[in-house]
Every structure is written in C-alpha cells, then in structure tokens.
Specification:
The chain is α+β, with helices and mostly antiparallel strands. The protein has helices at about 5-30, 35-50, 115-135, 145-155; strands at about 55, 70, 75, 90-100, 100-110, 160, 165-170, 175-180, 195-200, 205, 210-215, 220, 230, 235, 245. It contains 4 helices and 15 strands. It holds the Pfam family Peptidase_M24.
Length: about 250
C-alpha cells in the first residue's frame, strides 16, 4: 500500500535525515587507505547510539550490520569487512537511520585515496544521474519520468544502469511501495502525489548492467568485474521541487 505522510511524520523523518547527514559527513573524513569498513560500521553504531537513533537495516531480514559497504565491483548490500581499504578503491556506504520511528535512507560513494579518471567519472555521472532523477520527482509526474531521466543521461555518458534493484517508498517501514526503477519510459507508471516519501538511488556500472549474487545471498556484484557506484537520497514529493531530507548541502 502506498501511503502519503503527514506533516508530523515528515518532520520525524527529517530529524532522522539530519542525523544521517551528520554521520555521512563524519564518514567522509574517515575514508582513506588503511581503514576497514568494519571500523566504519562500528563508528556508525556508536554515532547513532550517541544521537538517540538506531540503524534500521541491522536485523532487517537477518542483515547483521549497521551499514552496507559495497566495494568496487559490488553493486549493493556489501558486508563490512576487516580488510583494509587501499588506494584507488571506491566504496559505497549505505545506511538507514531510525529516530523515534522516523526513517531516512542514503547511500554515498567515496573515493579512497587516488582513484583513476574513469572511476572518478563513474562517481560523477552517478551523482549527476541521481539529481536528474530528483528533478522529475514532483507531484503530477510519473515514476517512469524519474527512471527515463537517469537512464538517458547515464547511457549517453557510456555507463549502464542496474535494473535488479530500485528505489522505494519509505516510512514507517524500510521498503514500501512504490518501486522506483532507475530506467524506463517517460509518462509511464504511477503518478506521484504530494506527501509521498521515496528513495531514488541509481546504481551505475562501468560495464554491463547485470548483477550476480554472492554466496552470502546479500551482496550483488557486476558480472564483468566492472566497478559500480551509487548515490541515494530520501525525498518528499511536493507540488514544487521535492524536499530532500538527506541533503548534505544545506
């Protein structure tokens, strides 16, 4: 069922978003060769506890960590690990914050040390694709408009769009209707309405768009070892430009 959120619900989600943004900004300072994603996971656990919040995905369908940490060719749902990040890696940290029942979800891809030009371009195109999708996310538009804007831009830049994972509605539970594909046709799909809260989270690959699943039944990676990047915001549909509750640039 698709729900439209009340002003009070949106305020609670914004409060969670504010904590999530602060946490991501601290993570950005930590990303460097030699750190482990298990150390980042422990930091997030402590940070959220200190701010009266909890990691929503920990325990979700049995997922054991506070963050997803997807490295290089991992598309999403990578497990934190004890191996140290090395110069040239790209790492996506994805987390969901729960503050008094309000949820916020955001992923960000970080460069570890000196990343090659193609890797930096992959990251830049992915982030730009996110915002091109967000531009279409307003009342009266359709879900297909979001995906079409993302797909058209990413493919014109020579990259591919993952189809196996989508954005989603959020609040009061983590994954709700509607699904928000990052590909598609304009003027197709559900019409967006004021008060809907969704995530847009394109996963863009260097090579082929198809994914394969690791033996842990969580981590998806590219089939050709090409790198993958992801940026994600949680946003509220309004009659005008959407309200990005995980905006890092306020």
């Amino acid at each position: 069922m698709i729900t439209r959120k009340s002003k009070r619900e949106i305020e609670k989600m914004q409060a969670a978003g504010d904590i999530l943004v602060k946490c991501h900004k601290e993570i950005a300072k930590m990303i460097k060769p030699g750190i482990t994603t298990m150390e980042i996971d422990a930091f997030v656990e402590k940070f959220l506890e200190e701010h009266g919040a909890t990691p929503e995905q920990k325990g979700y369908s049995g997922y054991p960590y506070a963050i997803c940490a997807s490295l290089n060719d991992e598309i999403c749902h990578g497990f934190p690990r004890d191996e140290k990040l090395i110069d040239g890696d790209i790492i996506t940290i994805d987390m969901v914050v729960n503050l008094d029942g309000g949820l916020a979800d955001s992923a960000w891809t970080y460069a570890v040390g000196n990343v090659d030009e193609k890797g930096l371009r992959l990251m830049d195109v992915t982030k730009t694709a996110l915002y091109k999708g967000i531009e279409q996310a307003r009342a009266g538009k359709r879900i297909g408009d979001i995906g079409h804007a993302i797909q058209t831009y990413a493919e014109e830049e020579g990259f591919s769009v993952v189809r196996d994972f989508t954005g989603h509605g959020i609040g009061p539970t983590l994954h709700e209707e509607p699904h928000i594909p990052h590909f598609g046709l304009p003027n197709k799909g559900l019409r967006l309405k004021e008060g809907m809260v969704i995530t847009i989270e394109p996963m863009i690959n260097e090579g082929d768009w198809q994914s394969q699943m690791d033996q842990n039944n969580w981590t998806a990676r590219t089939i050709d070892k090409g790198r993958s990047a992801q940026y994600e915001h949680t946003l509220v549909i309004t009659k005008d430009a959407p309200l990005i509750i995980t905006d890092q640039d306020k």
